[in-house]
Amino acid sequence: MSEHVLVCNIKDYAGKSVLIKGWVHNQRSSGKISFIQVRDGSGYIQAVANRGDLKEECWNTINEITRESSIMIEGSVSEHPKKKGVFELQVSDVMIIAKSEPFPIEKKEHGPDFLLQNRHLWLRSKKQWAIQRIRNTIICATYDFFMGENFIKVDTPIITASSCEGTTTLFELEYFDLGKAYLSQSGQLYLEALISAHGKVFDFGPVFRAEKSKTRKHLVEFWMMDAEMAFYEHEDNIAIQERLVCSIIRQVLKINQKELEILGRDISKLDSISPPFERITHSEAVKILQKKGSGITEDVDLGANDESLLADVFKGPLFIERWPAKIKAFYMKRCPDDYNYVKASDLMAPEGFGELIGGSQREDDYDLLLSRMKEENMPIDDFQWYLDTRRYGSVPHSGFGYGLERLVTWITGIEHIRETIPFPRMLYRFYP
Ligand code: 4AD
Ligand code: MG
Q: Among 49, 333, 366, 394, which has the highest number of CB atoms less than 10 A from its own CB?
């Protein structure tokens, strides 16, 4: 039997006989020739079977194949007669590993409910395949970027004793005899403890928001990357976010051309992203939005419609800075000229894809932090460990967190965040 090779490496085998193991993505046949589109995980290849070149038994096997059957195909690799750089397999033998029952997802259009109910099968479709590959590139590019900037990757807990982003979106659970515990909304507070050991750290893991929102931008479980840096002030925080986003985009454009093409993404929209990104304050954003007819006022967070309105004005990624303290988290550092504002930044995606990153310089003064926590009636006892970070060698520091699925939605240009994660958890769905 010939060597088993992956489709992604097929061009190295031109003229040679190889074995491909995978699934039948599609098939069309006439009496004399059959075209089998095979997916092996690493890519897609067309296998061409000519009745005249095959044993009768093999031709009969080919006619038994159903869509999504698992198969092994042996054949010689040749360049497509009309498409340069596209390789095909001239079939010499076919073996069925397991014949598939009629596949529920047909070639016609299906509604979202049906597709989500069959998510475990839907993931095999070409578009879903492309999305997961781009997601993978974003994850790897993030690790590469931080290694290049001398960070270390650390892991923060999923079960926590206290909330990071306010108590309104917390998942609660009973923790043995110790009372209530919560699922993490962000690893940030733990990273703030770790910077005193390692300087620059990041985590990357699942976080949970018991959010009753049913929008195309919200998931209940999603993956967050939090980064935290000792001795970084607000400006340094902005600059590193720009570098990170640009290096992720460059990497996707380099590695995932094929996938972006499958998704029909307008690449020029990504190609044009370069630092420095535009920046406005929250007050400026409010003024612009009011002029455009939004009902937003000072001290109010942006709504989905506001995000779209801003995307009409600003074509690239946009930082919104200097947020009203009232509507931002307790740990953010006040602006020295006006304590009503904090040194926070939200990075908004272009094209109306919404907030990609939330970040801020952190309050490093023990007394100011404590007084803010008291103002918010936070359970101080549960946060003693966090306050310790300001007792034992506090330093100016900053950090930020991105929502992986938000980045994937923007970069792939798809309509809804639910397609960016293999098994989405949403308000009305956690099956399959
Ligand atoms: O803005 P957020 O809430 O910030 C934090 O949690 C900080 N502790 C991060 C930090 O400074 N280390 O969340 C960060 C990002 C948002 O910008 C958004 O991209 C994403 O997480 N996000 C969501 N993604 C999907 N579904 C949701 N329900 C999301 N909520 C936030
Ligand atoms: Mg935010």
A: 49
